[in-house]
Write a structure and sequence with these properties.
The complex is a heterodimer of chains A (321) and B (279).
Chain A (H helix, E strand, L loop, with lengths): L13 H15 L6 H21 L3 H8 L7 H8 L1 E5 L12 E8 L2 E8 L5 H7 L6 H16 L4 E7 L6 H5 L2 H14 L4 E10 H5 L6 E5 L3 E3 L3 H8 L6 H8 L3 H6 L5 E3 L10 H20 L3 H13 L4 E3 L1
Helix pairs in contact in A: 1-2, 3-11, 6-8, 10-11
Chain B lengths: L1 H4 L2 H11 L5 E3 L6 E3 H6 L15 H8 L6 E3 L3 E3 L11 H12 L5 E8 L2 E8 L10 H16 L4 E7 L7 H20 L4 E9 L1 H4 L8 E4 L10 H8 L10 H7 L4 E2 L5 H13 L1
Parallel strand pairs in B: 6-7, 7-8, 8-9, 9-10
Antiparallel strand pairs in B: 1-2, 3-5, 5-6
Helix pairs in contact in B: 6-7
Classes of the chains: A alpha/beta (321), B alpha/beta (279).
Chain lengths: 321, 279
């Protein structure tokens, strides 16, 4: 029954883990009297503790959950809630960028196109996926796939999960900015429904580069902003140590962004985060996506595109003197 | 995003170094001592090596537009502080300071004007205003300018100079990338020409939205143009970047700008382009 400590344990997950360990220990000592009662007492305590911890997470703690290495990624959602997925590779110009995946799939009986950032799970796969940081080829692959969807009138679903577009030499040489700009332009006018889901990290231009759509959904513990808390901290406080304050200042959580009307809907996660119960997360995601998709399919495409543009025209808070 | 990743000292130093108050100035590129009056007459470019000094909104208006034709619109729009953002000083204080030092209410100045008699809708970014960064007010002013160009069926010309999206408005700034790109789809559908002039520096969220969406993309010689700032790239790849990296000529070579035009010829080139569209 000896259980080894999980590989990834966030600081605020520790007290819960310790109690869970205690229960495991007690279960292994069968002879103790009144053991069931004691276990029940502990389980209640765990439940209370979880409620308490997860109802008052700080913004920085949510950022940590968003980055949890066991959190479901784009391909996990695709493999668990879509069927008949065929991944399509390459931008037809330079190469295939594994930091963005895309392809055709079936969802709820509909043929759809799905595109998303993809991170790796270990060092090897992370190097392959470039930690989910796309090069221009990734955005151009998405661009070509969006056009494919439009040509055959198939709805588009995108999953956002990136620490940012890759700030490398080759990325600049091959026009990172141009590639992102082209996608913003195309997605604003694409004549098919687009649902965007921020599932983990939504860092800046690298995220919105596949993030313009009719409905912007965001997981409860995801973050979305113009800059990461660490980079923000290094600029404002000249040190990486003030990321907690930076996260607070940036108001980057789903709840914040719903209030600011930047996103349309918060997708709840299982208690403790998506990584605690991926199966339940997939069930929730499937329900939410199917509801959203059915609603969008009822709207005439001319109206949908007009409403999508209006939605972005209305973004921002300014003053008139 | 570009500008705030450069050290603050650098940004503040920039102007005095390049545009001293005295009668003479030393070219930061070749060291030539230039009489200030001569520099002005030479469009703020070095007569010896052609170095393009960074200049402001009023200088660009004078250089590009016909005399006394510029009519400003929406000058009353300025940033709110939707997030109550506070770093070493409150965001509102930062805006106030920029307003006082630049004389403008935001980092984008918009209006109507004429280029050799051709009426255009024109936008000029002000780098001195919080690094020319794009927040909600810049996004809204760009949107209204594009609408004006659409309604009046006038070509849109925008002079870019920006460090990118404005950090103090976080995700709201990010949304301006989508907002400005979305309104440009309407210009495209109405076949209204959109010309961008990328000046030193144009980086981050501005390059990655309306900066790179022109029907014609002009760059000024030597201008830094990119997505990530050079420092961020150097930190990532742990190497020094070659001196011409992300400069206008480099982008021309790589295929990301149409033409590099010396400031002296900017107006003439613009007029040739506008006439081509008119015909």
């Amino acid at each position: 029954m000896e259980k080894t400590q999980p590989k990834y344990l966030l600081e605020f997950e520790k007290p819960i883990y310790e109690l869970e360990q205690k229960i495991e220990e007690m279960k292994s000592i069968g002879e103790v009297i009144n053991i069931d009662e004691e276990i029940e007492r502990l389980q209640n305590k765990i439940f209370e503790l979880k409620q308490q911890i997860y109802s008052q997470l700080t913004r920085w703690q949510r950022v940590q959950i968003a980055r949890h290495p066991e959190r479901p990624y784009t391909l996990d959602y695709i493999n668990n809630i879509f069927t008949d997925f065929v991944e399509l590779h390459g931008d037809r110009l330079v190469r295939d960028d594994p930091a963005i995946v895309g392809g055709i799939a079936k969802f709820n009986g509909h043929s759809v196109l799905v595109v998303g950032h993809q991170k790796g799970r270990d060092t090897k796969s992370n190097l392959f996926r470039n930690f989910g940081m796309p090069n221009p080829e990734g955005y151009r692959k998405a661009h070509r796939l969006f056009l494919l969807a439009e040509k055959f009138s198939k709805p588009v679903i995108t999953f956002l999960d990136t620490p940012g577009a890759y700030p490398g030499m080759e990325a600049e040489e091959r026009g990172q900015a141009e590639a992102i700009a082209r996608n913003l332009f195309l997605m604003a006018k694409l004549r098919v429904p687009i649902i965007v889901v921020i599932i983990g990290e939504g860092a800046s231009g690298g995220a919105i580069g596949i993030g313009v759509g009719d409905r912007i959904l965001m997981l409860e513990n995801a973050w979305y902003s113009v800059i990461s808390p660490e980079s923000c901290s290094s600029i404002l406080w000249r040190s990486w140590d003030f990321k907690e304050q930076a996260a607070e200042a940036l108001k980057l959580t789903a709840k914040d962004l719903l209030e600011l009307k930047i996103i349309d809907r918060v997708v709840p996660e299982p208690l403790g985060g998506a990584h605690k119960d991926p199966k339940q997360m997939f069930t929730i995601m499937k329900e939410v996506l199917s509801e959203e998709l059915e609603n969008l399919l009822k709207i005439k495409i001319d109206d949908l595109v007009r409403m999508r543009k209006e939605k972005f025209y209305n973004q921002g808070v300014w003053k008139e003197l | 995003m570009g500008w705030f990743l450069r050290s603050k000292e650098n940004i503040e130093e920039d102007k005095p170094k390049e545009m001293p108050d005295g009668l003479w100035t030393k070219c930061p590129s070749c060291g030539e001592i230039i009489f200030k009056k001569q520099l002005e007459e030479n469009y703020f470019t070095c007569p010896k090596c052609g170095h393009h000094y960074r200049i402001g909104v009023l200088e660009y208006i004078n250089i590009i537009l016909d005399d006394a034709t510029f009519e400003e619109f929406n000058s009353n729009i300025t940033s709110g502080d939707p997030l109550n953002f506070f770093d070493s000083k409150p965001y509102l204080e930062r805006i106030e300071q920029s307003r006082n030092s630049t004389g403008f209410n935001e980092a984008l100045i918009t209006g109507l004007g004429k280029v050799e008699g051709i009426e255009v809708a024109a936008g000029f970014m002000c780098f001195a205003f919080i690094g020319g960064s794009m927040g909600s007010a810049v996004g809204e002013k760009f949107y209204r300018l594009a609408k004006l160009s659409l309604n009046k069926k006038l070509p849109l010309v925008v002079v870019c100079a920006s460090g990118g999206a404005r950090m103090q408005e976080a995700a709201l700034s990010l949304m301006q990338m989508a907002k400005t790109s979305a309104i440009l789809t309407e210009l495209a559908e109405a076949s209204i020409p959109y010309i961008t002039i990328l000046t030193d520096p144009t980086t981050g969220g501005v390059t990655a939205s309306f900066g790179m969406l022109g029907d014609i993309t002009i760059a000024e010689p030597g201008a830094l143009i990119g997505f990530a700032g050079p420092r961020v790239i150097e930190q990532t790849i742990k190497k020094k970047l070659p001196p011409n990296f992300q400069r206008a000529e480099f982008l021309l070579e790589k295929g990301f700008v149409d033409i590099v035009v010396p400031r002296k010829e900017l107006k003439q080139t613009l007029s040739i382009l506008l006439k081509w569209f008119q015909n």
